[in-house]
Design goal:
Layout lengths: L2 E2 L5 E2 L14 E2 L8 E5 L2 E5 L5 E7 L1 E2 L7 E6 L2 E6 L4 E7 L1 E2 L3 E3 L2 E8 L2 E5 L5 E7 L1 E6 L4 E6 L2 E5 L5 E7 L1 E6 L2 E6 L2 E6 L12 E6 L4 E6 L2 E5 L5 E7 L1 E2 L7 E5 L2 E5 L5 E7 L13 E5 L2 E5 L5 E3 L12 E3 L6 E3 L1 E2 L5 E4 L5 E2 L1 H11 L2 H10 L4 H12 L3 H10 L16 H12 L16 H19 L1
Helix pairs in contact: 2-3, 3-4, 4-5, 5-6
C-alpha cells in the first residue's frame, strides 16, 4: 500500500519508494488519483501507481490529467488530445493545445491553428474559430479567458463571446467580480462585463489585498488606497506606499518611511530612510534603514534587532524555516556573515540551527540551509551532512557537482571527481524518497545522471591508456 509524499511521490509505510520509479528516465509528480507521466529517452506516456504502463510511451510531450478526461499530447510535431485509456479523441492537428477548462456545464480548451488561437469542445469542434494571438484561463470564478491581439487585451466567455473588448494595454484580476485595466496610460476598475465601476483614472493600481479589502493606487503623483468598489478609503497623500501585511502598510511621507493601519492611523512614525518591504508574515518583523544602517522592528515600532549588534548593512527578505515552523530572518552583515532570528526574536546562530537539525534528523531543512550558503564551503558542508543523513536531493546535487558540464550552485567549492560523483549518484538511486523537482536547475534524473558519470569515467580511462 502506497501513499503520496508532499512532492507527489508514492512511498510505502516504511518510506520506501517503489522500484519502478527507477525503470524510467523521468517520472513526474501528480495528484494521488491521477495517471503518472513517465519518460524513457525522448518518449512520454503514462503509468499507474503500480508502475504499469497504462498509456504507451509514444509521445513527444504529455500533460497531466488534471481532473479532466482529456489531456493534450504532442506527436509528429502537432498537438491532439487523448483520454485515460490512451485513445486519440481529438487528432493531432494543432500547433499548440492547452488543457480543457470546465465552468458550470461547459468544457472548452484553447488551441492554436494557423498561427491563431481558438476554442474547441471535447469533440474537437471549434466553439470559436482561431482569431487571437493568445488565449489563457483568466478569471475562473466567472468562466472568462483573457485574449490578446498584438498588445491589446480583453476577455471572452466559454462560448467565445466578447465580454471585455480588446482595448486595454494591461488587464489583471482585481477582485472576484472586477478587473484593473490600463488604457491610454491610465488605470481604472471595470466589472466582468467591461463596465467601469468608477469613473476615476489612476496613474497606477496595485494588486488587491483581499485580507484588508484594499489596493494601493497612485493619483496626481500621490499614493493612497481604494477598496474593491473603487472607493478611496485612504485618500492619496503619501509619496509612496507598500502593501498591507500583518495589518500595517509602509508609507513614505516627507521623504521618510513609517507604517499606517487600515484606519490610516500612523502607528509607527515616518523616521526611516527605507521600509518599503513591510512586515513578514513569518517573523512579524520589518527591515528598516536608519542612519544608513539596517535593523528590524516589531509592530510596536521597537527596534528588536538594532544595527549596532552586528553592523547590518543590507536588508534581505524574511524567510520561513521548515523545521518546527521556526520564524527566522536572514540578514547579510559585515564580512558576509549571516545570523537568524527565531519567532521569539532571539538571535540564533548557524551552528545551533545545524546541531538542532542533525539531532532531529531533519535532513531536508539542513539541505535548505546549505542552499542559502551555496557559494561558500560552509554551505557545501551542510549539503554533505544532509546527504549523509540520506536526503536524496543533497545526494543528487553532490553527484551533479562532482560531474563536469553540469552547472550547480556549489561548483566553485567542489573539485571535479567522477569517482565521488558515481558514489553519490548510486546512493541517491537507493534512497527512500526521490524528488526530481529540485530547486537546482538542470540536474537530470538519477538514471540519466548515472549514465553521464559512467561515460565520463570511461572517457578518463581511455585517455589514460
Amino acid at each position: 500500500m502506497f501513499r503520496l509524499t508532499e512532492n507527489g511521490f508514492a512511498i510505502d509505510s516504511l518510506g520506501n519508494i517503489p522500484s519502478y520509479y527507477f525503470d524510467f528516465d523521468q517520472v513526474e509528480r501528480t495528484r494521488d488519483d491521477a495517471l503518472i507521466p513517465a519518460r524513457n529517452k525522448d518518449k512520454w506516456g503514462f503509468i499507474n501507481r503500480n508502475g504499469e504502463i497504462v498509456i504507451p510511451l509514444a509521445y513527444d510531450e504529455v500533460k497531466e490529467f488534471m481532473g479532466e478526461s482529456l489531456t493534450p499530447i504532442k506527436t509528429g510535431g502537432k498537438y491532439g488530445y487523448i483520454n485515460e485509456k490512451g485513445e486519440m479523441i481529438i487528432p493531432p492537428e494543432f500547433s499548440d493545445a492547452k488543457r480543457f477548462y470546465k465552468h458550470k456545464n461547459l468544457k472548452v480548451a484553447a488551441v492554436k491553428k494557423d498561427s491563431k488561437y481558438g476554442l474547441i469542445d471535447t469533440l474537437g469542434h471549434f466553439v470559436m474559430k482561431p482569431k487571437f494571438d493568445d488565449i489563457e484561463v483568466f478569471h475562473s470564478e466567472n468562466g472568462l479567458f483573457q485574449v490578446r491581439n498584438e498588445n491589446m487585451r480583453g476577455c471572452i466567455d466559454m462560448k467565445g463571446v466578447t465580454k471585455i473588448p480588446l482595448e486595454y494595454e494591461y488587464l489583471f484580476p482585481f477582485s472576484e467580480e472586477s478587473f484593473s485595466v490600463k488604457k491610454d496610460g491610465y488605470w481604472t476598475i471595470i466589472d466582468k462585463n467591461g463596465k467601469k465601476i468608477i469613473p476615476e483614472k489612476f496613474e497606477y493600481v496595485y494588486y488587491y489585498n483581499q485580507e484588508v479589502d484594499l489596493a494601493g493606487i497612485k493619483k496626481n503623483g500621490k499614493y493612497g488606497f481604494i477598496n474593491r468598489k473603487g472607493e478611496e478609503v485612504i485618500p492619496p497623500q503619501y509619496d509612496d506606499v507598500g502593501g498591507f501585511s500583518q495589518g500595517l502598510s509602509p508609507v513614505k511621507k516627507y521623504g521618510r518611511w513609517g507604517f499606517i493601519n487600515i484606519e490610516n492611523e500612523m502607528v509607527i512614525e515616518p523616521i526611516y530612510e527605507d521600509g518599503y518591504t513591510g512586515f513578514s508574515s513569518v517573523s512579524h518583523l520589518a527591515p528598516v534603514k536608519l542612519d544608513g544602517q539596517w535593523g528590524f522592528i516589531n509592530k510596536a515600532g521597537e527596534m528588536v534587532i538594532p544595527p549596532e549588534i552586528y553592523g547590518i548593512n543590507v536588508s534581505t527578505m524574511a524567510q520561513g524555516f521548515t523545521h518546527e515552523q521556526l520564524g527566522w530572518v536572514r540578514a547579510t552583515i559585515s564580512l558576509e556573515k549571516r545570523f537568524y532570528v527565531n519567532k521569539n526574536h532571539k538571535i540564533i546562530t548557524d551552528n545551533s540551527i545545524r546541531e538542532t537539525l542533525l539531532k532531529k534528523g531533519d535532513a531536508k531543512s539542513l539541505y535548505d540551509l546549505g542552499l542559502f550558503y551555496a557559494f561558500s564551503y560552509e554551505g557545501v558542508e551542510y549539503i554533505k551532512q544532509s546527504a549523509e543523513e540520506g536526503y536524496v536531493n543533497a545526494q543528487l546535487l553532490l553527484a551533479a557537482a562532482y560531474t563536469k558540464n553540469i552547472n550547480t550552485p556549489i561548483d566553485n567549492n567542489i573539485t571535479h571527481n567522477p569517482v565521488k560523483a558515481l558514489e553519490w549518484a548510486k546512493k541517491a538511486k537507493n534512497r527512500k524518497i526521490v524528488n526530481h523537482d529540485l530547486v537546482v536547475d538542470k540536474i537530470p534524473p538519477v538514471n540519466e545522471l548515472l549514465n553521464w558519470i559512467e561515460k565520463e569515467q570511461n572517457d578518463m580511462e581511455y585517455y589514460k591508456k
